[in-house]
Amino acid sequence: MAMITLENLAHSYHQNPTGDADYALKQMTHIWQDGGAYALLGASGCGKTTLLNIISGLVTPSHGRVLFGDRDVTRADTADRNIAQVFQFPVVYDTMTVAENLAFPLRNRGKDAGYITDRVQKIGQMIGMEHMLKRKARGLTADAKQKISLGRGMVREDVNAILFDEPLTVIDPHMKWELRTQLKQLHRQFGHTMIYVTHDQTEALTFADKVVVMHEGRVVQMGTPEELFETPAHTFVGYFIGSPGMNLFPAEVRGNQARIGDQSLELGADYGIPPGRLQIGIRPEYVRLAPEGLALSVTRVEDIGRHRILRGQVAGHPVNAILHEGEALPDQPKLRFEPGRINVYADDWRLAPTGV
């Protein structure tokens, strides 16, 4: 296992990049701790797979270095990095049995036959295929083959890191939760450094200790699920995390007051007079119906079983609120934002209150 350092890393697929727009990955420096479970989360095309491939050695970065511990592996071959990688689509050997597929990485490294048998049994049980170990891989379903691929990626105990590139895409939805749980248990048991690429926030938040949110080639925030929810560092994080995502409003900010259109509200902290394009963000969970507050134009109310979602507009801007069970909607509803839960953004980046 190894601590992974990305030092002044950037990458462009253009031979002669001239600006940020030509870079698939903008410059970044990050340290990923030995034994951590990380999820790379973002929309398609944000740079997740490029970054994963740089870590694995499939892509050499245009700038910067990749270090495993103190060792510079920037230009080292994938085979020299001592990693395991599981891809989006299953890669299995159809002529081999399930057991032979799982054992393949261990046999390649000359492991003892007894050890191989023990590990194959353990991994076979973990992926729910212990009763199929003697079956040929040919003819198995796509999700069964992907489970074999997952198992083969995890069968080695001596790797620096295990990299997963959207590994549950072809897995039956009913199996996804179980496999995510098993991956988490495996991480706790063996302490491998794991990096998991996904565009699914549920996968990322349930798997990872730290979620690395990417947007347009940048890491816009690395944090725990709670940090991403409560204090999104960038408006994209607020929008992308949560269902519904964070409400965002263009605003004027002066001290502890904000104005949305011709309506004002308390911010709960002093932000001075910040420059830039200003927005305030509030999670739907912290928007309340109140006797006094912001005038609301209701669009509809959606009942999704666990709760109801109120959708409407404030000063011409869309807003979502979570209604509590049994909460009645008045004829002329008004909204109150919990002051301590409001985030202020300048040019999409979160501002800290003055003096903090």
From TrEMBL:
Native species? Pseudogemmobacter faecipullorum
> Where would I find the ABC transporter domain in this sequence?
4-241
Is Iron given among the entry's keywords?
no
Q: Does the keyword Lyase apply?
A: no
* Entries under CDD domains matching the protein: ABC_Carb_Solutes_like (cd03259)
Q: Which residues form a coiled coil?
A: none
| Entry GO MF terms | ATP binding
Q: What protein family is recorded?
A: Belongs to the ABC transporter superfamily.
Provide this UniProt record's keywords sorted from A to Z: ATP-binding, Cell membrane, Membrane, Nucleotide-binding, Transport
UniProt name for this protein: ABC transporter ATP-binding protein
